[in-house]
Amino acid sequence: MSTTISIILDTRRMKKTDKYPVKLRVTFQRVTEYYQTIFDLAKEEWEKLPASRISNELQPIRDKLKDIERKTENAVKELTPFNFAEFEKDFIRGNTNFRQRNFKTEVITPNGDEFDYSPFYKKIPLFIETAGKPGLISYSYLKYIKQLIREGRISSAINYHCSYVSLRKFRGDVPFFVITTTYLKEYENWLKNQDISKTTIGIYLRPLRALFNEAIEDGIIKREKCYPFGKRKYRIPTSKNVKKALELSEVEKIYFYECNPELMGEQQAKDYWLFSYFGNGMNPKDIASLKHKNIDGDYLTFERSKTERSLRSDPKPITIFLTDDMKKIIERRGNKNKAPNNYLFPILEHGLSPLRQYELVQNFVGFINDWMKRIFKNLGIDKKWTTYVARHTFSTVMKRSGASTEFIQEALGHSDLKTTENYLDSFDKDVKKEFAQRLTSFKKERLLQADLME
Fold first, then answer.
1. Tell me, what CATH number does 122's domain have?
2. Residue 358 within any structural domain of the chain
3. How remote is the C-alpha of 263 from its chain's centroid?
């Protein structure tokens, strides 16, 4: 199905300036999304744009809108097959012709909601429950879960459903105004009595807080009357779990571990685990999403899947120096077709539904963790073996090697604006290269020992 685009004046809501926002409208497979440009026009001004002669003030605006339309057409043609996530990432994000700070995608379908959610019924049973009315938490949860699914954020959609299921087990599907500070404290104690950790309690409650804010924005509830979060109210508990990173000597054991040649999965899992470690602790979804176009010479640049759709501000890209070890892993495991839009590794492929992509990434994570558990056991390393350990080990090794906290925050791609303000541009590539080479400093020591023995 073809993708259609147009520039429109959104007259649904007038701004305080008595003007309306000019938006780019993109429609694909009966789903329409709107992207707000930097231009606002009055109806009278909009109606004058097609005229052969227009004012000196409107002429540059018309030229720019035509340019946006032309470049959008080219961007859409380059995306085969088309999908909104890639379009936003490649064309909208960072584009100075579009508003970014409060950027929010609007999803509108003709004749009501025609998106097919049936593939998600098994994982998200809320779809087949009796629909709640506006004001009930089930209504807001389902509405937001649908939005997440449309955006391809399947993992987040499932997390929101888990949050709803937990709250429903506590006291049922209740209206927002029932959820008071006292209610939340009792809910927290109820979870603690079931030995639920603070981390999990936070995972359940952060979606609820987000939906309170959505309900306020939609006019369902009023903040001053029934918002239970904040100072002198209820605060979501946070945990300070001590993460167990590996020692560099343990990474050395993994690096030099000789895999069983009859067990192909063992070598593959080791390669991907080390690629994560060498690649700034890159998570499996980001590894799976890498494309050949992310490589530029000796550097790899990408956006974290976790932050690329952030609504708060432009997510900062992460730049990694490709060490020789990373290049060898790409050579061994990478797709031989090096077309720019082709995936770097044979984990995902084009044309998959968001649900199928989610399932394949989960399988990929399980594959790595299962084989690394075996490797850790064979090496006598009595610690967690997951891909998250690779990420935390990277940050710990960097810190112990003298890297500043700011450098590590940039390298990990943390989205917290309070701690990651524009760090990306503050470090030269030579510095990235220097620290990347420290990840295998043990190799020099081994070579030195070998030279001394000769």
1. 1.10.150
2. yes
3. 33
